[in-house]
Amino acid sequence: MTGQVFAQGDLLVTPRRVVFEGNAQREELSLFNMGKDTATYSVSFIQKNMKEDGSFITISNSSNVKMSAEPYLRIFPRTITLAPGEPQVIMIQCRRSPNMATGEYRSHLYFRSEKDYKPLGSKNPFKDTTLVSIQLIPIFGISIPVIIRTGEVNVTTSFTNLKLEFRQDSIPTLEFMINRAGNCSTYGDLVVEYISGKSKPITVGNVKGVGVYTNIDHRKVTVKLNQVPGVVLKTGNLRVRYTSPDDAKYVVYSEAVLPIMEQNGIVQQGATKDNGQ
Predict the structure, then answer these.
(1) In this prediction, what percent of the chain has a pLDDT beyond 90?
(2) Are 58 and 145 in contact (CB under 8 A)?
């Protein structure tokens, strides 16, 4: 289980993902109401798939999901009411089945606000029967992945299609593809360093919590590079590393180097070198 914090709206959730490995059977989630009002949340499971750009889509018919973790998970309590500044711990229990296939099972734990929302504009006392009335009701909810791994699991990653781009506002970005192979997902941090000659590498980009889940085998990533005094991205090398997250033992999953050089005022990019995971 990772120890990172996930906050959206007035609800703070720790950690932001849960992974059951080995003989682990129970994990705890800590909730905290950061808002000024008492809030009630219902807790349930939903199924999501990751898209190539890293966003998620919700699967409406969960019965079609082959590697869903929901049948093997129990959560309690399923309804939480938190006063302002009040914490609460919920328990997730994992009950594996002897006939589970080797690999990774995943579902998402969904926290849905049960606040009594009123449609926007509902206080308007006037009504025009010749117009179509549209009432927008915002519903707040967040979700975190819950993963069960069984049997021998493995994953490797690599980088391809590294490209340095300069946007119209002159902000440089590094674009690339993370490729995943194996029967489980990968999750970690991205670090981009600028290397010139014998000088010490300078960190120019950093992205935390980048995952590639089992329903896809590659993910497109764009990292906005920081403008560091003294660093001009016209010569030298950019090195990108995909590593384990902060709360785990440091491991470099994959690494690649993109040579850059300027010719006739145009920044050229050489071939990349990828060390693999």
Answers:
(1) 66
(2) no
> What is the amino acid identity at position 138?
P
The H or E element that residue 204 is part of is strand 202-212
In tens, the pLDDT along 253-262 reads 999 999 987 6
Cα separations in angstroms, 246 against 4, 20, 146, 252: 9, 19, 19, 12
**Which domains, ranges and CATH numbers included, belong to the chain?**
6-150 (2.60.40.10), 155-266 (2.60.40.10)
Distance CA 105, CA 91 (A): 19
**Nearest residue to 233 (alpha-carbon basis) of 167, 189, 178:** 167
Helices (H), 104-208: none
Cα separation, 224 vs 56, whole angstroms: 21
Q: Of 127, 108, 95, which is closest to residue 46 (Cα–Cα)? A: 108
Task: Give 103-113 pLDDT, tens digit per residue.
Answer: 999 999 999 98
pLDDT digits 0-9 by tens, 141-183: 789 999 999 999 999 999 999 999 887 667 899 999 999 999 9
Q: Give the single-character DSSP code of 111.
A: E
Structure tokens belonging to residue 11: 């609800």
Whose structure tokens read 């950093």? 206
Please give the structure tokens belonging to residue 116: 């009594």
pTM score, whole prediction: 0.82
Q: How many CB atoms lie within 10 A of CB 99?
A: 5
3-state secondary structure of 72: helix
DSSP at 34: -
